[in-house]
Each structure stands twice: as structure tokens, then as C-alpha cells.
Design brief:
Helices cover about 70% and strands about 0% of the residues. It is mainly alpha-helical. β1 and β2 form a beta hairpin.
């Protein structure tokens, strides 16, 4: 829909701002859950010190599990404005004709894709670095829980802070996209992510970049130790780079794909972002289990982002 909503010179800003607004929704929903629904099993109180609404039981983690129904309601409510207010162009074919002609054109697009070397390289790069990014977001909190013993409140607060960083990163990335081009934004985001992952692998309870620090104190305030604050800063770098990486990937595809087949290529783009999304988590799990080390498991992502950068270099 993006090319039909704004001029070409504002595509990057639209994509980045759209991603930033999505992060704002994530922040609000996380605050709602942590502040009023999910409580610590030890204290029985939420992040704001309240007793959970609706009598939710902290011991059986009802406050955590209610996020499923809450997400469903949230999705319906906030998707409605797009359907009500966003303009669309009228259908050119009936559903049956559209399906038949679409399948014929899709077969043609797939046959021609190997000749479109730049787009093919980009789709492959997107498959690899999106898998790495999904794995990084999925395992960031798990890694912190294993390293520092964080509970739901700490991990959720960490998520809010990362989402705030992601909001600013996506918004700024959209502006840079229009000025520098999406490929540079993607490459810069991956370099930041590579640096942050490598640095995180040097952080544990008692060390930061191989320098010994005081370990966390039990029942201390949130993120009280130096190692936890270092992890928080590196997590913010990941949050700031993740939004621009995904938003600029959309705009790069818009600039590369044939105008008359833009939605077909977006379909392939979405497919490459999902079809191997299990590979990263699976490899992290296998390596962690074999080596008995979370650090070794997370190190797999360095290879993923490096491979994504190498493939991006072939994109024109």
C-alpha cells in the first residue's frame, strides 16, 4: 500500500514512522500488562505496586497468560482505523479472475527471478538477517534471564525500554532512508547489531568486556548492577537498529521491484521473512544444548548477520 499513499521521496519516512508507531503500541500494551495485570509471584504486586486486576493469580501466572486474549482484542481495535479510513483502489477483476491471472503471473515471476540477480540476492539476504533478528528478539530476554536471573517484571521492563529505543530508531531510520538510501540504512543497522551481539557475549554477572565488576545483589532495585546496565545499553542499540533494518527493507524492495508486480514481490519478501524463521531458534537451541553455553548459542547470530551483509553487498 505504501507507494499509493505518499510520493516516492517520502517512502522511507512513511515506512520508518509506521514501524515507530507500531513500537508505541507495543510500549502501551506492555505498560498495561506489567502495570495492572502481571504480578511478581514473590510480592503479588504489579510493576506499579497494584494487586492484579480481575483477581488474576500471580502464582499460576494468570497475568502472563492473559496477554493472549488481550493481544487479540488490541489487534482488532487498532486495525479498524486502517480499514475505515485508508483509501484503496477499486478491484480490476473479479475474485475468480484475479486468482487465475495472479497464479499465471506468479509462475512467470518465479521463472524470471533467477535472472533478477539483485532482487534474488536481496530476498535471500532478507531471509537470513530477518531470521537472525527474530531470533535475537526472541532470545534476548531468555539470555538475560539465564545470565542475570531476571523475572517477568524485569524482562518486561527491559522490553519496554527496548521498544522506546526502537521507536526513536525507526523514526530516525526513516528520515535517513530518504536521504541516504535504504541499502545504506540496512547495512548500517546490521553493523550496529553485529557490534551489539559481540559485545553482549562479553557481558555476564561479573564481567563487562572482560573487565571484572561487582555482581548483582539479590533483591536490589531494577538493573542495579553495572553488568545489567551494560546489557540494557546494548539491548537499546539492538532495539534502535532493529526497526530501521525492517522498515528500510520494505522501501528497498519498493525501489527495486517492477511497479506492475510490486505486490507479488512483497509476497515473496514476506515469504522469505517467514519460511526459515525456525532455523535461527533451532540452531541456537542445538548449539546451546551441545555446548551447555548460552553464549555459544547466541554466537550463531553473528554468522547470520555477517552472511546477510555479504549478500547485501551484491544488491544494486
Amino acid at each position: 500500500m505504501m507507494p499509493t499513499l505518499v510520493p516516492p521521496n517520502r517512502i522511507g519516512r512513511l515506512s520508518g514512522t509506521g514501524w515507530a508507531v507500531g513500537y508505541v503500541g507495543g510500549i502501551l500494551s506492555l505498560v498495561l500488562v506489567l502495570g495492572f495485570l502481571a504480578a511478581s509471584p514473590q510480592s503479588g504486586h504489579t510493576l506499579f505496586g497494584f494487586t492484579p486486576l480481575f483477581g488474576l493469580d500471580p502464582l499460576t501466572h494468570q497475568g502472563d497468560r492473559i496477554t493472549g486474549p488481550l493481544t487479540a482484542i488490541w489487534f482488532v481495535v487498532f486495525a479498524l482505523p486502517m480499514f475505515v479510513f485508508t483509501p484503496d483502489y477499486p478491484a480490476k477483476r473479479s475474485i475468480r479472475e484475479g486468482l487465475r491471472e495472479g497464479m499465471v503471473e506468479l509462475k512467470q515471476t518465479l521463472r524470471e527471478l533467477p535472472k533478477q540477480k539483485s532482487i534474488a540476492a536481496f530476498l535471500l539476504a532478507n531471509m537470513i538477517y530477518t531470521d537472525a533478528l527474530v531470533s535475537l528478539f526472541a532470545f534476548g530476554g531468555i539470555y538475560a534471564a539465564g545470565t542475570f536471573g531476571w523475572n517477568t517484571i524485569q524482562i518486561g521492563t527491559f522490553g519496554i525500554i527496548l521498544a522506546i529505543a526502537g521507536t526513536f530508531g525507526a523514526w530516525l531510520g526513516g528520515k535517513l532512508d530518504d536521504r541516504l538510501g535504504p541499502k545504506r540504512v540496512i547495512a548500517g543497522s546490521m553493523l550496529v547489531l553485529l557490534f551489539a551481539i559481540i559485545a553482549i557475549l562479553t557481558v555476564d554477572k561479573e564481567r563487562i568486556l572482560f573487565v571484572r565488576v561487582a555482581p548483582p545483589v539479590p533483591n536490589a532495585p531494577l538493573f542495579d548492577s553495572a553488568a545489567e546496565r551494560a546489557y540494557l545499553v546494548l539491548g537499546c542499540l539492538i532495539g534502535m537498529a532493529g526497526g530501521p533494518l525492517q522498515a528500510a527493507s520494505r522501501t528497498l524492495l519498493i525501489r527495486m521491484a517492477p511497479r506492475d508486480r510490486i505486490t507479488q514481490y512483497f509476497g515473496l519478501f514476506a515469504l522469505t521473512g517467514k519460511i526459515t524463521s525456525f532455523v535461527g531458534p533451532l540452531l541456537i537451541g542445538i548449539v546451546t544444548a551441545v555446548t551447555m553455553s548460552q553464549k555459544a548459542g547466541m554466537a550463531v547470530l553473528v554468522l547470520f548477520f555477517a552472511a546477510g551483509l555479504a549478500l547485501l553487498a551484491r544488491v544494486r
